Amino acid sequence: MYCPECGKKLEEGARFCSYCGTRVLLIADDAPGNEDSLGETKVFVPLSDSAALREEQMKAAAPETVQLPEDLPEIAEPEEDEKPDREKINEERMRRRTRERKRRNAGDIFFLIGAAVVTVFAIFLFVIITRGMKNGLAPVGADDSVLESTETSESHNTIDTDAAMSAAIEAAEAEESRKAEALAREEAEKARAEELEKANSRIENITSSTVQDPAIHTPTPTPTPTPTPVPPEPVPTMLDAAPADLGTLKTARFATAAATSRLVQDDATINNAPEMAIDSDTVTSWQEGVPGDGIGEQITVNLSEIRKVRCLALYLGNWREPDLYLNNNRPKEMTVTINGKSYEMSFTDAMIPQYINFNVPVETNTITFTIKSVYPGKDPGDTCISEIIPYVAE
Predict the structure, then answer these.
(1) What contacts 169, CB < 8 A, 6 or more positions away?
(2) Model pTM?
(3) What's the CA gap between 356 and 313, in Å, rounded?
(4) What's the CA angle centered on 142, arms 136 and 145, to 5 degrees?
(5) pLDDT, tens digit, for every residue of 278-297?
(6) Domain of 49, in residue numbers
(7) Does pLDDT of 148 surpass 70?
C-alpha cells in the first residue's frame, strides 16, 4: 500500500505514513477484485478496527501503482532502521506551507501594484484629456490652431481687463455723484431751516408788537357752526317672521282708532268697529263696510304720545275661525303713511303674523293704513284686519 499524500510505499496495515505523518486510509478501489486503471478518482475510507477487516486487507492483492504529480518535491529515502521523527515531519510540513503562502502573498502584492499603476495612469490620462478639452487644445501637430487659441485667450484677457477698468471708473463716478447729491440736499435743508427760523422770528416780532400796541387789534375769527346730524331716512321691510331683535323692544298699545267705514252685522253681539283692531284680541276684527272689496278704505291708529316705533305686527284677515279667514277678504297690498310719508307694502296670504320692520325708529303717534288690493275670500265682500300691535324703542 502507498501513502495518498507523498506516494511512498508503506507497510501493510500501517495507520500513519512514516514519511509525512499522514493518516493512512483504505482505498476502496484497491480492494480485491477491483481492476480500475491508474489515474481514476479514488474514495478513501478509514480502516476498520475490526480484526476481520484487517485480516481481509492483509489477504488483498497489492494495489496498483499510483501516478504521482510531476512537481512533487523529492524527499530523501530514510534508512530502514531510522524511525520517523514526528516533530521533523511537522516542521517540514509547516515550512512547505509557509513557502506556498509566501508565493501566494507575493502574487497578490504584484497584482495590487499592477492594478494601482494602471489606475494612476488612467486617472492621469483622464485629467490630461479633460484639461485639453476645457482649454480648447488642438491635436499634436496643429501648431497654427494652438497659436490661434493662445491669441484668442490673450484678447479675451485684454477685453476682460478693459471691462473691469470701465466698471471701476463708472462706480467711482457714481459714488462722486451720490456724494454731491447728498451734499446738495444737506445744504437745501439747512437753507430751509434758516428760512423757517427767520419766519418764526418775524411772527414773534409781530405778535409782541401787537400786544404792546393797543391800537392794533387782531380780528376774532368767526366760529364755524357745527352741523346738526341728520338722522337716516327710515326704510320699512316686510317680514314673515319676527325680527331677531324683537325681544329688545317694548310692546305698546294704540289708544284710539278710526276708519273710513265699518261693517254692521245683523248679530248685534259682533262688533266690527276700528277699535277691534287694537284691543289685543285676534278673535275680534275691523271690517270695512262699503260695497265691493273695500279698495281705498282706511284705518288710522293713534298712540297716546309720540313714541319711537321700530316694528308693527299685523294680523290680517278674520282670525275668529280658520273658515272665516278663508271666507273673508285679506289685504294683499296697503299704503302705510307715517309723518306724511307713504310706504307701499305687500303681504303674504297666510294666517300668520306679519311684521313691518324699520331700519331706524320712527318717532310718531299716528299711522294710517290704506287698502290697495286684496286676496278675495270664498264669500267676497268684506276685508278684515284682526290686530295691529306696535313695538317701540325706549
Answers:
(1) none
(2) 0.45
(3) 7
(4) 50
(5) 999 999 999 999 999 999 99
(6) 25-84
(7) no
Look up the CATH number of the domain holding residue 319. 2.60.120.260
Task: Count CB neighbours of 307 within 10 A.
Answer: 19
Taking alpha carbons only, the member of 323, 394, 393, 333 closest to residue 369 is 333
Instruction: Tell me if 26 sits within 8 A of 63, measured CB to CB.
Output: no
Q: How far apart are CA 236 and CA 224, in angstroms?
A: 36
- DSSP H or E stretch at residue 129: helix 86-135
CA 244 to chain centre: 39
- Considering 65, 84, 103, which residue would you say is the last residue of a domain? 84
By DSSP bridging, strand 25-27 and strand 330-338 are: unpaired
Total number of domains in the chain: 2
Cα–Cα distances in Å, from 183 out to 174, 192, 196? 14, 14, 20
- Single-letter code of the amino acid located at 199: A
Dig out the grid coordinates for 64 from the structure.
496498483
Q: How many CB atoms lie within 10 A of CB 279?
A: 18
